[in-house]
Automatic annotation (TrEMBL), chain B:
UniProt feature coiled coil, ranges: none
Single annotated GO MF: FAD binding
Domain of life: Bacteria
Residues in BLUF domain copies: 5-100
Pfam families found in the cross-reference section: BLUF
The protein, known as: BLUF domain-containing protein
């Protein structure tokens, strides 16, 4: 309305004070200070939210509102929700001295050009809003690593959602948002960019070590116990940290922070990692390895080698352990330690493991007598629910009697979901398959597992066979004794010298496996090896 | 229908350096703040501490107890917070908010020697209920002393 349109009489009437005018407004208006504390409220505000409004904080009225100095809410419009779910469209107008006028209009969600500025659940900024703030910050002061981005992932969040329900999951996300905001400064921007993914933009000059301190604090604070609706909830947080660099755009910093986050998770979670050059090269290398690994089965690059194990009483070969080898045309022979973890991480181990089982059964079906094929089964295969079916179909197709197959598991298979794994083990045993415990003596070596399942064999880790100290002797003796009492056979692995062989013989191990008694060999060399062995045994007797 | 009262018991290592009166000042502030907040939230219970840790029993409606605990979790001065108990109780054991200032005075050391530890006071060794009874006795003594 311009002045010319106002009647002269009205112009001459003295105007009431601005405060009176504000009190005449039907809509609540409050002024908050830099700490988010309400320092003024008009009459409509007091009518709507209660008389003692001044002195309280905006977060008291809107539990999901976070005063973290979010760029998202300054000079912007966002939707705020009260405890009883009434929605207000809030307009934030910054004033001098860190004060800010907030006018509140009752009603639905505000309209924005590209989606809401605030995440409805947590009140944090959205991804779009965050990326805008990041780009602006980079233009203003992006050059000298003065901006840090923290990518945060919650560990075990899904478990909370699945076991306690979405309501608790949501409540947890809100508390996470609160803790994030609490740990950050006002000028930082905190956003929720996915289900359980958060990101922090730490602007203002980041002093030496300050970003690391914040990352560390986030890991600590988010990892502390939560109490939600009477439930005690424990999760962890992994954080990836990256700095701005000359010519960087928002997505570059985000990608680097993401890479660092990936490394933090790979290093065991509940920690932070700083982006380093080379992380992308590492990841690229892993990606390429994964691509090769996915093709390896179809391109027939896998091969099984078989290492014999002998009965120490008769000195006869009673079976072979199938060992996976990967020959890659460019990489050469890739050691299992380099690709098995990746195969497990990607789930490829299930199909590879299936191929191993089938191939070993087929090979063993051609071996003389009742020679056994021992096959390693990964914990991941137990989780896939198809193991029992795979084993029985491998036996059926090859015609190998179940009693000639031995499944080797490590303790790792029993760590999670023990009941289901035990059920599968019992079902395998009912088929007639032997089950042995591999690598015993490393890891937890829980005796409880030996009690829970009647393993036919315990394979003592090679380190105890190779060791020469009195303590290795004592362990060898103890495990052999344990096996005898529990009715489980003991295989000593990694036997390389006659002296070691004599020692394990003295300790009454049942079987032996190692370079001394036979190196791993290809399937076509087994027949000859057995022939020679036969001659050796006959000559010796 | 009356609100169900919950009890939360925890202890935590304290991260405040015991030098230049910093510990005294911080603790004074923590006590003051917890008194104000807990009064407002209808929380009763007790807080005791020494140079090494804080132990608290919080009693009140679940949401108030949770809010208070969350405030503690967001406080960097507390580290390694161990939640010892969270459960509904038939009635409040504390009529108000009691704080057992457990400095290094010989009287206090003596009082806690009784609980079972020989040297100093080790909350970590007590189960939730034992802490409770320790705190309770302390609260009664405090009450009696104030009367």
């Amino acid at each position: 309305m311009n002045a010319a349109a106002i009647p002269i009489a009205a112009r001459e009437t003295p105007l009431p004070t601005s405060e009176r005018i504000l009190d005449g407004l039907a809509e609540p208006v409050v002024v908050v200070n830099a700490d988010g504390e309400i320092v003024y409220a008009n009459t409509a505000g007091e009518k709507t939210f209660g008389v003692w409004l001044v002195g309280r904080s905006l977060a008291d009225l809107f539990p999901y509102y976070l005063h973290s100095g979010q760029a998202a809410t300054v000079g912007r419009v966002s939707t705020l929700t009260t405890e009883d779910h009434t929605k207000y469209i809030a307009r934030f107008e910054p004033m001098e001295n860190g004060l800010c006028v907030v006018s509140l209009h009752a009603g639905g969600a505000a309209n924005h050009e590209d989606g809401p500025a605030c995440d409805e659940l947590t009140g944090l900024a959205t991804r779009n809003c965050f990326m805008r703030a990041l780009d602006v910050a980079l233009v203003e002061r992006g050059d000298l690593g003065e901006i840090a981005v923290h990518c945060i992932d919650l560990d075990r969040f899904k478990l909370v959602n699945d076991t306690l329900g979405h309501a608790i999951g949501d409540a947890l996300l809100k508390k996470v948002a609160e803790r994030l905001a609490k740990a950050c400064r006002k000028e930082d921007v905190v956003a929720r960019i996915g289900g359980d993914e958060f990101v922090v933009l730490q602007c203002a000059p980041v002093r030496e070590g300050e970003a690391e301190r914040l990352a560390n604090r986030l890991v600590d604070l988010l990892g502390r116990t939560y109490v939600l609706n009477g439930h005690t909830v424990n999760i962890g947080a992994s954080v990836g940290l990256a700095y701005s660099g000359s010519g960087y755009q928002g997505r570059d910093v985000m990608r680097n922070a993401d890479l660092a986050l990936y490394e933090a998770k790979r290093a065991g979670r509940a920690r932070f990692r700083c982006f380093e050059f080379g992380m992308d090269a590492n990841l690229r290398e892993r990606r390429e390895l994964e691509i090769d690994l996915r093709r390896a089965l179809a391109l027939k690059q896998f091969e099984l080698h078989y290492q014999p194990f002998l009965d120490l009483k008769s000195n006869r070969v009673i079976g072979f352990e199938a060992l996976l080898r990967w020959h890659h045309p460019r990489r050469g022979n890739v050691p299992p330690l380099d690709f098995i973890p990746l195969a497990e991480e990607t789930g490829l181990i299930v199909t590879i493991g299936e191929w191993v089982l089938r191939s070993a059964c087929e090979a063993a079906a051609n071996w003389p007598g009742d020679m056994v094929a021992a096959v390693n089964v990964s914990p991941l295969q137990f989780k896939s629910d198809t193991l029992l079916e795979t084993v029985s179909s491998a036996l059926e197709r090859s015609g190998l009697p179940a009693s000639r197959l031995e499944v080797e598991i490590t303790e790792g298979a029993l760590l999670d979901d023990t009941e289901n794994v035990l059920a599968t083990l019992h079902a395998l045993r009912d088929l007639g398959v032997h089950i042995s415990m591999d690598d015993f003596g490393t890891g937890y070596s829980s005796l409880a597992y030996l009690q829970k399942f009647p393993f036919s064999k315990i394979k003592l880790d090679r380190s105890f066979v190779a060791g020469t100290g009195a303590d290795c002797d004592a362990i060898l003796k103890a495990v052999a004794g344990l096996g005898t009492s529990l009715g489980m056979a003991i295989t000593a692995e990694g036997v390389e010298t006659d002296e070691q062989l004599n020692r394990i013989r003295e300790e009454r191990c049942t079987y032996v496996q190692g370079y001394l008694t036979g190196r791993p060999m290809t399937v076509d060399r087994i027949a000859r090896f057995l022939e020679n062995g036969q001659q050796r045994t006959e000559a010796a007797s | 229908m009356s609100t169900v009262i919950y009890r939360l018991v925890y202890y935590s290592r304290n991260h405040i350096p015991d030098q230049n009166g910093e510990l005294d000042a911080e603790i004074k502030q923590i006590l003051e703040r917890s008194r104000v907040n807990n009064d407002k939230d209808g929380i009763t219970g007790a807080l005791l501490f020494n140079a090494g840790c804080f132990a608290q029993v919080l009693e009140g409606p679940l949401d108030a107890v949770e809010r208070t605990f969350e405030r503690i979790q967001q406080d960097e001065r507390h580290g390694d917070v161990s939640l010892l108990a969270l459960e509904p109780i038939a009635e409040r054991a504390f009529g108000s908010w009691a704080m057992g200032f457990l400095g290094r005075s010989e009287t206090n050391a003596h009082r806690f020697a009784e609980v079972g530890t020989k040297s100093g006071f080790d909350v970590a060794r007590l189960s939730g209920d034992e802490i409770h009874s320790v705190l309770k006795r302390l609260a009664i003594e405090e009450e009696a002393a104030a009367a």
